[in-house]
Amino acid sequence: MLGLLIIFTLGVISIIIGKHYLAEQEKATAQVIEQQLAHIERNVHLHYDDLGLLLYYLKFSLINESSPLSGLSIGQRDVNPSVLSASILTLEGQKYDTDLVNPTQLLYGNLDLSFLLVYVFPLIIIAFSYNLRSEEEEMGTWRLVSLLANSTQVFLLKKLSVRVILLLSVMITLFLIATISLQIPWDTSFLLFVTASLLYLLFWFALSFWIVSFQRNSDFNAISLLSIWLALVVLLPATINTLITTQYPVPEALSTIIKQRDAYHQKWDTNKRATMDKFYASYPQFESYGYPTEEGFTWLWYYAMQHAGDAESREESASMRDKILQRETISRNWAYVVPSMHTQLLFNELAGTHLSNHIDFLEYVQEFHERTRLFFYPRIFSERNAHEIDWTQFQPETWNAARDIDWITILLPLVIAIVIFSGLATINHWKSS
Length: 433
Fold this sequence. Notes:
This protein has helices spanning 2-47, 51-57, 92-95, 102-108, 113-129, 134-139, 142-148, 152-181, 188-212, 218-247, 252-265, 272-282, 299-312, 314-335, 339-351, 355-381, 407-432; strands spanning 60-64, 83-86, 397-399. It is elongated, with a radius of gyration of 29 Å. It contains 17 helices and three strands.
């Protein structure tokens, strides 16, 4: 009962932390929406007669919408913010800006419900079931049970089922509290989240029942189960992560930024016509604006320089993106045989807090950046006045990832693991009877 009370208390705390996280996300979104208009109005008032200078300062915000499920599995949102503000200058240097509260959050960490389900619930299961049979033998009651029970295996399953029902009741209660507190809709993602949690806990019960079926003493069972827990939730994920990062290094993470900055800064000492030729090769529709003189400063040449920074680092940027996605793909493939990894990655995916979600969001940022530049370029180059533009149309845009959920592919690894260990336990009990 003490174990159940502890896990329930930790679950409630994790839900409170999730609620605080979602409140922070809503607050940040509301502030962005409110402050962007004020930001635009303030700068338009200061630089209304110079659109090129105005667009140097203006930033436009984009919001990666947070699902209520992210309160249960915060995932990569600790390091990848859900709000990104970008100007129409070079984009690569702005993609990876983060928010100032992240270091504080990372210092204390976030105890979300997915962490409890993946790491802590299995420990409670081990504590509940490691002496399922050995306790009877060590107390001298197993011989009596063997004589009175029609089937010792059925007797053990009944003892195990009591523990299963109690722990799953706590889990379901926590989910009910979460749906009310975090206002989680009963949609496909949430039902899949609950189903995956259920199967993951059943996997640990099946694994524990298999260890118990060897009919060893309590010390052996406890050490074996704790060793398996350590391997599945710590050792194997850390080893796989180390192998993947070693096999697929991402030097482009630094070279992209360096090349983008060099490509921009070197243009101050480069022939302006060469810079404009590259710009017009990308945007031939602007070629009618001609070539600026080599002496003096023009916004036409300046924004052509900014574009060059992105254009010349595009190859490294694409290579970095591909390698990051390749890393995640390989991690997913390994996770099919490591239930703890599979479940954690699944939780993050359902909550929209996984790495692919952020990469897709950055793709949307790049598309938005291009649309915005193409809107303002002709107005800047024509030296239009800022008051001629309807600035109210520039509201923060919200992006929401589309989810394609395959129940069979997602749940099958857990089902297979449960069947395997349940079958092995049954065989062991059958041999000993």
